[in-house]
Design brief:
single chain; alpha+beta; four-stranded antiparallel sheet; 45 helices; 8% strand; disordered C terminus; Patched family-domain-containing protein
């Protein structure tokens, strides 16, 4: 076990006491009978107790004496000018020993002159004060060789001096590891009494005799001498300590205002504003309703009184104005919209061509898809999280590349937790003598482990900073990895090493703090519930043979650790672990599990679409009357083709962008099929439903004309949704995050190609299907003619079979136009709907501040993964944060000005230097998340050069800068220019030794890149660490804080500084994800508004549509807060999906409102006029398609996702998509019709339903064939 006994000796009186002697019998007479000024208590050396014992002082109660000139000079040189006059109670031999014993404390305390002066003053006064007898009383002695040796004494120290001494030293750091000086000179004391007790305790390697420091003393004539200790922020600048060692000298940093700190009481300001605004609106509305009802009642009573006075006889002319049409037809739009007319004509022509030449259209489409799909040969899947979630041009990616290229890739860590929490009685201590012995054997087996493929061992791969010793952070190092040293007193050894890790350094030389290896204890490390072991391996560039060897060994490590889990279980313990390759493997396993669920989801949507399409023309009554007709009426083949078109659009999009070298991601593979199915199935339902209506209204037209009319009406609606969705998705292409950007591009391409194929290839297939139906041929088997089905058909002028008679309306269609639409558009219902949906919207806004950021790693892996317990243990028991490096670029350390902008331990260093700022931030760890002092290679380099540290920088047998450092408080005399570079290279090659713990090889060998040709430092880093980070919120805030700190440093010093930690690259997205989300969603809504305005011809209606989409998205975000869905790149992709799907829900109803179908409008109940009539028409026309084509399809597909084993799919897909379906469907089918009836713009004539006499007759025929709704003219009112 490595012991720095000199460091402890420096803090004890052993080396100050010099000679001592041992005797068998103590003397019974008082040893210090006289206590008066000018009289001694001890003086000189009298020998030692044993051969290896320290020197003990002699009992001497004689008066103090004037020293000779030589002794005077020695004393003044060592203890200061106040000893230049007056008698003393010490001899030259004592002063010589005192000087020797001060050499190590000088290395420890030199950075803080006040602490050093107080330390020196205490022991100089004790040794040489002429008034010793006033504050020292010898209590025990032994006689040896005729001399009386002191073995125990009492020393009185004034409380003010003791407190001041302790306060000046308590924050002083030492060495590259920034060990606390108090741990070395005071045994980790928490107050001055504990410090003095540690200094005075008799022990091997400590004081050779016992020194007691009583607080109160009854001996007559004795008392502590009042003395003033130097403060670390002393008024005398010669004794003032640096900021890193004295908080009082640190510059004040500006206060930090946390984002989201605006609150009204406990509510965030946004939440309060939303609730307050809605409350005012609701209260106002209630008052308005009450007032309106009161007025109506008053007006009704007045009207009744007037009617009694009027002539009640009916007029002969009252019936002359009876309507031949319902009232709504007089309010129907009279204007045409040129853009819609052009779109209608274009789609009509397109439909006619596709129907006229179905074979050419289908073959051309297949060739087109095949050419694009050929890009699959270039298909690549990106799985590297760093490349997925971080833009290659982002600051985090560039900084990681800079760090890796200069300091090497960050180390690979293999980590194990051993926990004792399996007993029913509760957690207990994990360590025992037996467990320690067993575990040392386990570590030996790990050292002997070989990779299966390459045969590499830990010794071949591990990080070795100081030679051949691997970095293994383990409690075994406290016992030198020797089972034989784990004796019955193992707990005392453990406690001693935990209290002073520098005494129990592992083979690689760096002290091992107990929080790095033990967890779950408060004070006694022997009570730790968990222990953790970390093997640190070198990392290498991707694709290198060295990396392959490391991964090969990690596979062997994983296999061995899985075996260890069983061994630990047999011992009543639990073991969790992670290797560097574990997370990626488990993520891929999660994806493979999800793939099955996703495929099942798509199959169910496919089956539903195929079966539901057939129900458009086949009722239950028809089936019961003639079952054979189901063989003809079935549209299963048509549904299959529709789904195939969806798949063709997906493969085409992936192929197209694979041609362009755009890598796909797992999100693309998993999610895009769902999106395209959502859009594609809906369009198929709309086209088929409209075509069936045309078949009823225009039965005498040829199929091509009927197809043309159907597409002419539905084409613009499909164009509307396709453009808005494509542009909404395409906006993501402007995002730097590859996962989001690539998804957006692939999704936009798939949606656009799908729309093209639906208005071309699907139309051709629909034509062929209609020809098959009219020829009574079986679905799926068109060569088979079902003659029995013709019995159901009516004839046309006796010329042959005629297929069409009006089919029964589906129950859904009847429900909408008879019950739902009239109820929804009633005045009372509309008022309730508006207030309820505004309330939901207000709740969504209020919940926005509750959205958390992040993606917990435990969510991204399967529930049964072995990494789940590991991450739980990491958060519960690992009490150390990840290291963070503040990296400088092109730091010209050869210039004094630049040195002063970085250093901290000298008075000439800038107050707002890099190290001082980091030290100040460390002292407010609750906001900075910086917990450990900064390892400053520049300060340690300069201390290494200090000639007072005689064993560090030595040239020709002498300290390097002897004679050049007259003022050790400043940088004067320290190297600059070429000399700086030369000595820096020497420092970085200097090992850490017992005599010089400041050597830079172990701590800074890879921390500084020196350019000897340009005499500059291209790259260097200053290491500190974060406080323990136990949640995603902690990681995000720590990253943001590091960014803030580096900006302060750069602004204050002018240096190019950035922070780096291994996790930063994964959390860079959260620095901008809120603004990015707002920008993407806001831009998408803006595009929706512009496209709606252009295609609908109404700014007002476009505003209503955009507002509805906004409400849907805000409600979904509010639901995310309630359901525990945090905001990250995955949920951002889903929100983009939500925008597109929300438009799909709303677009068709909005267009049906703006261009109402005459066939439906003629059936409007008389009590609906104007916008109400058009809203009724829109609901009746396309409401059924929106419900059956979009809503039910999504419900079926999303429901299957509830059975996934992956938490990430359950949380980020299932929950969000459930919210999407609920809110989008409810807004499209409930809120939007109401909003349009209240605020919708002026409508336009639908070209397809206003074509002159022929169309008028067709409309009348359709109206005659359709069953009439029960007409109720009563008007709902208040």
């Amino acid at each position: 076990m490595t012991k720095l006994s000199q460091l402890i000796a420096a803090g004890s009186l052993l080396l100050l006491a010099n000679l001592g002697a041992a005797s068998d019998e103590p003397d019974s007479t008082p040893y210090t009978p006289k206590h008066e000024a000018g009289r001694c208590a001890i003086r000189g050396h009298c020998g030692s107790k044993s051969l290896f014992g320290g020197q003990l002082p002699c009992v001497d109660n004689d008066p103090a004496e004037e020293p000779d000139e030589k002794l005077r000079n020695q004393l003044v040189e060592l203890c200061g000018p106040k000893w230049s006059t007056g008698p003393v109670c010490c001899l030259a031999e004592q002063v010589a020993t005192l000087k020797k014993s001060f050499s190590t404390p000088n290395q420890i305390l030199a950075a803080c002159p006040a602490c050093k002066d107080n330390f020196y003053n205490l022991f100089c006064t004790f040794t040489c004060s002429p008034d010793q007898s006033l504050f020292i009383n010898v209590t025990k002695t032994v006689v040896k060789n005729g001399k009386t040796l002191v073995t125990e004494l009492d020393q009185l120290v004034h409380p003010d001096y003791g407190t001041g001494f302790y306060d000046s030293c308590k924050d002083v750091k030492f060495g590259p590891t920034n060990s606390k000086a108090m741990d070395l000179i005071g045994g980790g004391a928490k107050n001055y009494s504990q410090m003095l007790t540690f200094l005075g305790k008799e022990r091997l390697g400590g004081s050779p005799f016992q020194m007691n420091f009583p607080g109160e003393y009854s001996e007559p004539g004795m008392g502590a001498i009042p003395a003033k200790a130097r403060k670390c922020n002393d008024e005398d600048p010669d004794f003032r300590c640096a900021c890193v060692d004295c908080e009082a000298t640190c510059p004040a940093l500006p206060d930090i205002e946390e984002s989201g700190s605006c609150h009204v009481g406990k509510l965030p300001c946004l939440s309060f504003a939303s609730i307050f605004t809605y409350g005012v609106l609701l209260f106002t509305s209630v008052l308005a309703v009450v007032g309106h009802v009161a007025w109506r009642r008053h007006a009704k009573r007045r009207s009744e009184r007037l009617r009694l006075l009027a002539d009640a006889a009916p007029s002969d002319d009252e019936d002359e104005g009876d309507l031949t049409e319902n009232g709504a037809m007089f309010d129907r739009p009279q204007k045409t919209y040129i853009v819609n007319t052009w779109c209608d004509a274009a789609f009509s022509r397109l439909g006619h061509v596709a129907a006229r030449f179905p074979a050419i259209t289908i073959v051309t489409s297949i060739i087109f898809v095949s050419i694009l799909s050929a890009g699959w040969f270039h298909f690549e899947l990106e799985k590297d999280p760093a490349r997925l979630w971080v833009s290659p041009t982002s600051a985090a990616a560039e900084e990681k590349a800079f760090f890796d290229s200069n300091f090497g890739p960050f180390y690979r860590a293999e980590k194990i937790f051993l926990v004792n929490d399996t007993e029913p009685s509760g957690p207990g201590p994990v360590l025992s003598r037996d467990t320690l012995t067993w575990w040392m054997g386990v570590e030996k087996s790990v050292r002997d482990l070989r990779g299966q493929q390459w045969g590499s061992t830990l010794q071949d791969l591990c990080l070795k900073p100081t030679g051949n010793a691997c970095v293994v952070q383990t409690v075994s190092a406290y016992f030198q990895n020797e089972p034989g040293l784990v004796d019955d007193d193992w707990k005392e050894t453990l406690r001693m090493c935990a209290d002073s890790p520098v005494e129990c350094r592992p083979e690689y030389g760096q002290p091992l703090e107990p929080n790095m290896i033990l967890g779950g204890y408060s004070s006694d490390p022997a009570d730790a519930i968990a222990m953790t072991v970390t093997w640190v391996l070198n990392n290498y560039p991707e694709g290198s043979p060295e990396l392959d060897r490391a991964m090969d060994w990690e596979q062997a490590m994983k296999t061995r650790t899985l075996q260890l889990q069983e061994e630990a279980k047999q011992r009543g313990l639990r073991l969790s672990f992670s290797t560097e390759i574990s997370l990626e493997e488990e993520l891929n396993k999660s994806t493979n599990t999800d793939a099955k669920i996703i495929v099942i989801s798509y199959i169910i949507m496919f089956l539903y679409a195929s079966i539901a399409l057939g129900s458009t023309t086949l009722s239950v009554r028809d089936f019961l009357r003639n079952p054979a007709i189901s063989l003809v009426e079935s549209k299963f083949t048509l549904g299959v083709v529709g789904i195939l078109i969806v798949l063709m659009s997906i493969t085409s999009s992936i192929g197209l962008f694979s041609w362009a070298g755009l890598r796909a991601t797992l999100i693309i593979v998993d999610v895009i099929p769902f999106i395209v199915l959502a859009v594609g199935v809906d369009n198929i339902f709309l086209i088929v439903h409209e075509f069936e209506r045309v078949n009823i209204s225009h039965p005498d037209e040829v199929v091509e004309v009927r197809i043309s009319k159907a597409l002419g009406r539905m084409g613009p609606s499909i164009l509307f949704s396709a453009i808005t969705e494509t542009i909404s998705f395409a906006l993501g292409a402007f995002v730097g995050m590859p996962a989001v950007r690539n998804f957006a591009i692939y999704a936009a391409g798939a949606v656009f190609i799908n729309a093209i194929l639906q208005v071309t290839m699907f139309i051709s297939v629909l034509t062929l299907n209609q020809i098959r139906v009219e020829d009574s041929r079986a679905d799926c088997f068109p060569c088979v003619q079902v003659k029995s089905a013709r019995i159901h058909l009516s004839s046309s002028n006796g010329t042959g079979a005629r297929f069409y008679e009006a089919p029964e309306e589906s129950w859904l269609q009847q429900f909408i136009h008879k019950t739902y639409a009239p109820w929804l558009l009633g005045k009372k219902t509309k008022a309730v709907v508006v207030m309820v949906f505004l309330g939901i919207f207000a709740a969504g806004v209020a919940l926005i501040p509750e959205i958390e950021l992040g993606l917990d790693q435990r969510v991204a892996i399967p529930d049964d993964s072995y990494l789940i317990p590991y991450f739980n243990d990491l958060y519960d028991y690992f009490d150390a944060g990840p290291p963070v490096y503040f990296v400088t670029r092109e730091f010209n350390g050869t210039q004094r000005k630049q040195q002063e902008e970085v250093c901290a331990r000298y008075t000439s260093c800038e107050q707002m230097s890099l190290t001082n700022i980091l030290e100040q931030e460390r002292k407010r760890a609750d906001v900075s998340y910086i917990s450990s002092p900064t390892a400053s290679w520049l300060d340690d380099f300069f201390q290494w050069l200090d000639p007072m540290n005689k064993n560090c920088c030595v040239e020709m047998g002498k300290p390097c800068f002897a004679g050049r450092r007259d003022d050790t408080r400043t940088l004067a005399g320290l190297p600059e220019g070429e000399e700086f570079v030369r000595y820096l290279n020497k420092f970085l090659k200097s090992p850490t030794t017992e005599t010089c713990p400041l050597g830079g090889l172990a701590s800074y060998g890879s921390a500084v890149v020196v350019d000897s040709e340009r005499d500059t430092i291209p790259a260097s880093h200053f290491r500190t660490s974060h406080s323990p980070l136990r949640s995603q919120d902690d990681f995000i805030k720590a990253y943001a804080s590091a960014r803030r700190i580096s900006k302060i440093i750069s602004d204050s010093t002018g240096l190019d500084v950035f922070p780096y930690s291994v996790f930063y690259v994964f959390f860079d997205q959260y620095a901008s994800i809120v603004s990015l989300t707002a920008a993407l969603l806001g831009s998408a809504v803006g595009i929706i508004f512009l496209v709606s305005t252009a295609l609908l011809g109404s700014v007002i209606t476009a505003t209503v549509v955009a507002a509805t989409v906004v409400m849907v998205i805000v409600d979904i975000i509010g639901a995310m807060a309630v359901m525990g869905v945090s905001l990250n790149a995955v949920s951002l992709v889903n929100l983009i999906i939500c925008v597109g799907i929300a438009v799909e829900f709303c677009a068709h109803i909005a267009r049906a409102f703006m261009f109402p179908s005459r066939k439906f409008m003629e059936r409007v109940r008389n009590r609906f006029r104007g916008r109400d009539a058009r809203a009724w028409t829109a609901l009746t026309n396309v409401g059924g398609s929106v419900f059956s084509g979009i809503t039910v399809t999504k419900i079926l597909g999303v429901t299957v996702l509830a059975f996934t084993r992956s938490k990430i799919f359950e949380i980020y897909y299932f929950r969000v998509w459930v919210a999407l379906v609920v809110f989008a469907a409810s807004h499209a089918l409930v809120f939007l019709p109401v909003a349009l009836s209240l605020f919708g713009g002026e409508g336009y004539i639908d070209p397809e339903s206003d074509g002159g006499l022929e169309e008028d007759l067709a409309a009348r025929r359709y109206r005659a064939l359709m069953p009439e709704a029960d007409d109720t003219d009563s008007d709902e009112g208040y």
